[in-house]
Q: What sequence folds into this?
């Protein structure tokens, strides 16, 4: 299996954990020299904490794993295009490569609304690879919102 | 004393803690109904963690203090205009009001390079108040970088 697909599947497993907690299903993993050193899934409501996005949790774990604030030889895999906070956090951690599954047309800052991952004025820009396991990543999110709408109609 | 000045002085005390750790001196406090419910100062090198910016540490503490990911009745005081990660985190936490001491012309995302605090496409925009204790906030940062340059010349 292609390496990008393999690690995106790992990010999808994280996203499914969020789904089971009734959280918007977004997952992330950070890979360093072929090993996953950080994992995270959206836990915003569960943790009652606006910082508890998949990417932030994964970056925190990865910094602890390698004992450095610079994740310079890492790739982050995210099921969804990042929000401004997470895109900014990825740049702050100097992650060279960002792979995401599907775009977030109304809230994505990896190219949709803005591209915070590649700002010329900053001292770090990320390589972006899109559309890895796009169908699975997109279906998971769509199912989640479809279920919410259907629950709201019942109530 | 004007309320904004009072709380910016508290943020400056946080920034001084960073200074004493040889970290770029940036501090933040979050105020809810007249009380400080979150404090933070830059600890990136000390913690070996790219997330350990003043604002992120303060938001984390504030969410725990009020048990909600929404900091809807809060004001954040920051000695320096925020980076993209922190500006995004402030928007994610739906903080209504952002007060900062001085601009960061080369890395600020509260109006200098971009204005992530007021993006029309998102469902939250912050009020921005600038130049509170500007001289003190600016001098602290300038002193820090002057000392670094002077240390580097000695070595």
A:
């Amino acid at each position: 299996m292609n390496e990008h697909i393999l690690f995106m599947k790992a990010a999808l497993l994280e996203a499914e954990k969020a789904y089971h907690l009734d959280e918007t299903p977004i997952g992330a993993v950070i890979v360093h020299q072929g090993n996953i050193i950080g994992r995270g899934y959206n836990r915003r409501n569960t943790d009652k904490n606006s910082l508890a996005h998949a990417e932030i949790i994964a970056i925190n774990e990865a910094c602890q794993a390698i004992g450095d604030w610079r994740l310079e030889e890492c790739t982050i895999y995210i099921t969804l295009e990042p929000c401004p906070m997470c895109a900014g956090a990825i740049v702050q951690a100097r992650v060279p490569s960002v792979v995401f599954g599907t775009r977030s047309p109304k809230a994505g800052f990896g190219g949709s609304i803005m591209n915070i991952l590649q700002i010329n004025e900053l001292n770090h820009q990320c390589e972006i690879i899109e559309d890895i396991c796009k169908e699975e990543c997109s279906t998971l999110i769509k199912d989640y919102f479809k279920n919410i709408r259907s629950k709201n109609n019942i109530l």
About this structure: Chain A has a mean pLDDT of 96. The longest helix of chain A spans residues 134-154.
